[in-house]
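User: As part of a screening pipeline, I want to sanity-check one entry by hand. Below is the sequence and the SMILES for flavin-adenine dinucleotide. Please return the complex as structure tokens so I can compare it with the automated output.
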Amino acid sequence: MKLRRVLGCYGVLFCLCQTSAKFSQSANEIPQAERRKIAIVGGGIGGTSCAYWLQKAAGDSIDIDLFNYGKIGGRIATANVNGKRYEAGASILHPENKYMAQWTEEFGLHKQDSPDGVGRMGIWNGHELVFEESDWRWVTFFRMMRRYGFDLLKLKFHITDMLAKFSRIYRLQEQGNAFDSTVELITAMSEDFTPQLNVTLRHFLKEKGYHDVFINELASAAENCNYGQSSDELNAFVGSVGLAGAVPDLWAVHGGNFQIPQKLVEHSKAKVISAKVNHVAKTADGKYTIRATDENDNEMDASTEYDAVVLALPLVRDSLSLSVEGVDLNKHAGPYQQLISTFVRGSPRAEAWHKTAETMPDAILVSDTKLFYKSLGQWVDVDWSKGEPIPTTGTDRVWKVFSVEPLTNAQLKALFEVIEEKNEVRWLAYPRYPLHDVPKQPTFTLSHGLYHVNAIEWAASAMEMSAIGGRNVALLVLRDFFGAKTTGGDHGASAAKPATEL
Ligand SMILES: Cc1cc2nc3c(=O)[nH]c(=O)nc-3n(C[C@H](O)[C@H](O)[C@H](O)COP(=O)(O)OP(=O)(O)OC[C@H]3O[C@@H](n4cnc5c(N)ncnc54)[C@H](O)[C@@H]3O)c2cc1C
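Assistant: Here is the complex for your manual check:
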């Protein structure tokens, strides 16, 4: 049986435009300005993207201090199994993720080739494999059409349309458009997206005439393994982003996705301060100071004054470890979904899915959101290159299991007959999207000179989304502190003034 890298299965996706134009500086150029000092808190893709764009536009007019707790990359990180590194957090990029693709090229990195062959994915509903790919493409196609019929065609049109609209953001940002709120940014891509933020994915698909079997199996499995949430919880926009991953040519960065934020921070010339920020205070003349503790928990010097502070981290409701003088961050915070990536080197218990070792799919996506695991699939390491052998049988295969809670020994035993090695990574992975839970007005601008990149996550969370959020906040800083001419409401994609509430 040929093996694939199960990319298609875990595809969080994201969209972008087809153009291969290099980033131009034209629209983001700024008039000669007074030197400004900016603090960015958070060294994931959102914070490092913001630093990169600020440096690109403001050059020597800007000094950036980037505070980060832990490794640069945040939720983009690898885990070691048997001496090799595997993507433990954000793994998959969509073929149309423009920023991630262009940075890969600009920084001399390479896309990792997928292993040959189609591999096989199966959808498990808790009792049976309701759908299974074949080694033969046409058999897979026939099975898909027989089970999901024209809903597949409808999905293809929906995703194509969505990607085309989504890709407008690149032009808008290139032209210097900046948005104070998430809803404004999403509406600027297309007014069709705005109502999608306010209905569940199930409601949206039902209205479009999709059948229950499609919603309960294919859509549910895709969302469950991507976001660990159901079609009744996810808004239709993030749900569509999840479904857009059902395309070929998903990719990753050879050597690890974390290299992108690392390179971004290098190119930004930001001073990286390895510290946890606890409090942001305001001075009498409207500047900001930062109280932080270093890796040994020692208080750091807090005398530096900043013109602006960019928060590039999730604000997790009721467990905020960071406060800002005069701003109630809880109003901008929401719940986050825990997800556990458990790597197991060993062999799965094929009979758990009524299979034999030979017939077992390479990836199992679970459509029943109440089951104790969300997905299970074989992975290759980040340094794997085309032509290198990949074990297709035996106990040297490496499997990644997603679950909401850590797997107990009994649960692991139910899934694997041999466990040679186990490595577990815990994440607060994504916002929890139930409509009543999300902040009512996710905003990038929290107050004058204070910004929040991750407001974008309340529309949808992914590497490319944070990269877009980072650029948006850079544009806001350029507008507010460097006199850059940016627009927000009049962006040409939408005539009406967008609503600002979810
Ligand atoms: C298991 C998992 C799988 C995923 N799969 C995909 C995928 O396949 N494709 C995809 O596109 N996306 C995926 N994602 C989502 C993706 O990882 C995120 O959307 C994206 O990486 C978020 O980047 P960020 O910079 O906004 O936030 P983070 O990456 O969370 O960065 C925030 C940074 O701020 C630091 N920080 C926090 N508080 C403080 C403080 N007080 N002081 C200083 N520093 C602080 C953190 O340590 C961290 O380094 C996945 C996420 C997870 C967890």
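Points to compare against the pipeline: The two ends are 47 Å apart (CA to CA). The pocket of flavin-adenine dinucleotide is lined by residues 10, 12, 14, 41-47, 67-70, 74-76, 89-92, 276-277, 312-314, 321-322, 339, 341, 427, 429, 454, 461-464, 466 (CB under 6 Å).
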